Amino acid sequence: MEKTIFQKIIDREIPATIVYEDDNFIAILDINPVNIGHTLVIPKHPWVNMYEMPAEDFDHMMQVAHMLGVKIKNTLEADGVNIIMNNDAAAGQVVFHAHVHIIPRYTGDGHEHWHGARGYNEGEAEMIADKIMENY
Ligand code: 5GP
Question: Which of 38, 97, 99, 101 is catalytic?
Fold first, then answer.
C-alpha cells in the first residue's frame, strides 16, 4: 500500500517542521495553517482513523494534544484553541492516517464553524439518545 504523506514524514522521507516527538507520536506544523501554529498530532502507527485506534492509544494521543494545546495557547497568546479530528472523507478527512488538529484561535480571526440550525422534532432527541445508548 502507498505510504501516506504523514508516514513519509514519520520515516523522514519528506521534511516537516516538528514541534514534538516521542516513541509513539510526532507533532508537526500544518503546511497550510488555519492560523500560524496550527499543529497536527500524528500517531506513528498508521491507523487510518479513530475507529481503528485502541481507546488507550486514542487517550494517549489526546494527552499529547492537551499538552501541546495548552503550550501553543500560552506561547502564541491565542484567545482560544480548537482540537479537531476529522474521521472519513464525509467529515473532511483528506490524509488517511489518523491525526488531531490543534488550531490556535484569535477573537475576530474570521474562521467560522459549521452552523447547527436544524433543531429536533418532538420526541426525536429522546429517540436518538435511546438508539445511541442501546449500543453500549
Ligand atoms: P485532514 O483534513 O485530513 O484532517 O487534514 C490534513 C491536514 O494535513 C491538512 O490541514 C493539510 O494542510 C495537512 N497537510 C497535508 N499535506 C501535508 C504535508 O505534506 N505537510 C504538512 N506539514 N501538512 C500537510
Answer: 99
- How far apart, in Å, do the first and last CA atoms of the chain sit? 34
pLDDT, tens only, 5-29: 999 999 999 999 999 999 999 999 9
Confidence band of 42 (pLDDT split at 50, 70, 90) = very high
- Cα Rg of the chain (Å, integer): 17
Q: Which of 18, 25, 39, 26 is nearest to 105 (CA)?
A: 39
- Per the CB < 8 A criterion, the answer to whether 95 and 9 are in contact is no
Cell 478527512 -> residue: 93
- Read off the C-alpha cell for 123: 420526541
17 residue type, one letter: T
Ligand 1 proximal residues by C-beta, below 6 Å: 5, 16, 28-32, 40, 86, 92-95
Centroid of ligand 1 to alpha carbon of 46 (angstroms) = 15
pTM of the entire predicted model: 0.96
